[in-house]
Amino acid sequence: MMAADPAPQRWPLTRRMAFSLAACAFLVPSLGHAQADNDRMTPIAIPAQPDAIELGTGPLPGAAAKESWHRQYGSRFARNVTVATLTPFLPDPAKASGAAIIVAPGGGFRTLSMDNEGYDVAKGLAAKGIAAFVIKYRLRQTPADMPAFEKSMQEMFSGAARSPLPAANAAANDLAPQLADAAAAFRLIRNRAAQWHVDPDRIGMIGFSAGAMLTMATTLSTDAKPAFIGNIYGPLGNMTIPQDAPPMFAAIAADDPLFGNRDFKLIDDWRAAKRPVEFHLYEQGGHGFGMYPKTTTSTGWFDAFVRWLDMHGMFKPKS
């Protein structure tokens, strides 16, 4: 069992990012093939997670609702997560490169898209030779009753644009549990690097939507120091970039209803800091496309990300 990090440092969230914490809580993957029944939130039993390892950051302070799961859009979602875990997906030793990546699902810090933005991504990366670890980070509490939960999500999303924008440091403080979970995940992997045949200097992180926000916050405000990062349909507004920022891969669809019509100054900021960055702006794909098979070119983000990792030497075994 590992100890939680001390309170994380404040990170340079913009007002646009602060708004996004609320706005992205209601996810709409915009699946062209989705049926109405598939769109409904259907409660399911908590699945067995025999390989999940508790991160040791403790139970979520003040939590009353217990963890529960539901299915929507063909993916399993977890909510009211009060104890953070990390689930390893290790590659075949014959393929293993020694590189590793933490996969952070999205869900507005209120749910986690465990299949589409978690397990399926990790399985795909492990098949390529990258050790992947899905982080089930602690979430903000939501109503235990499913109808009440759905109503709260709809009300929050519809009112997000009318709500005053929180101060940047207040939004950062709101992420304290999630930042502690992410930092603990990096420590755990480095502590078990020999066991998992991982190079401690080649551990990266990829996040989706809210998971992308967590990835950025982890990169810029903790001592985790990921070797590379992926920002998949997270907000791309301007931020203060350190001179040692890691290589970044970013992908978003132009028709993303949350972030597609906003500016992409983060890419310019990365370039201005003279740090490696690759950016894919897909014409179509909506929000939350993840590993869903779609007819849009956004489906190609995963292959592009793998090629990008290869370009940065992540498939070469450590000499």
TrEMBL record:
The keyword Lipid metabolism does not apply. It comes from the Bacteria. Residues 1-36 form the signal peptide. Coiled coil: none annotated. InterPro entries: AB_hydrolase_fold, Dienelactn_hydro, GDXG_lipolytic_enzyme. Pfam families: DLH. The keyword Glycoprotein does not apply. GO terms for molecular function: hydrolase activity. Residues 119-290 form the Dienelactone hydrolase domain. SUPFAM superfamilies: alpha/beta-Hydrolases (SSF53474). Keywords: Hydrolase, Signal. PANTHER family: AB HYDROLASE SUPERFAMILY PROTEIN C4A8.06C, PEPTIDASE S9 PROLYL OLIGOPEPTIDASE CATALYTIC DOMAIN-CONTAINING PROTEIN. This is Alpha/beta hydrolase. It comes from Sphingobium amiense. The lineage of its organism: Bacteria, Pseudomonadati, Pseudomonadota, Alphaproteobacteria, Sphingomonadales.
